[in-house]
Amino acid sequence: MAEETLKQIGQRLKGLREVLDIPEAEVAELCEVTLEHYRKIEDGDADPGVYRLSKIAKRYGIDLNVLLFGEEPRMSAYFVTRKGQGLSVNRRKDYKYQSLASGFRRRKVDPYLVTVDPLPGDENHSKNAHEGQEFDVILQGVLEITIGEKVITLNPGDSIYFDSSEQHCMRAIGNEQCRFLCVVI
After folding, report:
1. pLDDT of residue 24
2. Which pLDDT score, from 0 to 100, does residue 12 have?
3. CA 101 to CA 78: how far, in whole Å?
4. What DSSP string describes 3-42?
5. Alpha-carbon torsion 113, 1, 39, 170, what sign?
């Protein structure tokens, strides 16, 4: 995520924790990070990751959008996201999430358009895990996904549904970006 975005998310996390009178250690434990690392997240010096923010949102009964974007969703009948207009969450310079339902209240799933830039050599993103399940369908490029120790290559039109509590990471293969629809359930 961009530095300013990290600072804003950190401020929202700290504000939520203070309003609900939640000890830092409790949130650090929920996020499966050290207290020192969690403090860096609140200070905007470390990337919390969407999976950690999702855990916090679910645990404390708030919408993920509040943590990500500082806005409450407003729509309850439908929500349209025009091409290229979804709210963006840049986790790293080579990994970008675009929320496709950010304005819809009480969502049952979180759909994203994800773009992954290729990394040099055989470098992988660090593995992460989050509660729930995930469905991904490849739109462009080739995606290599590692779930636990299993490595799977997906091409355009291929899809995968998996238990996202398993450690996993993804990377674009070749010199081309990979774009895919990701639905976190």
Report:
1. 92
2. 86
3. 9
4. HHHHHHHHHHHHHHHHHTT--HHHHHHHHTS-HHHHHHHH
5. positive
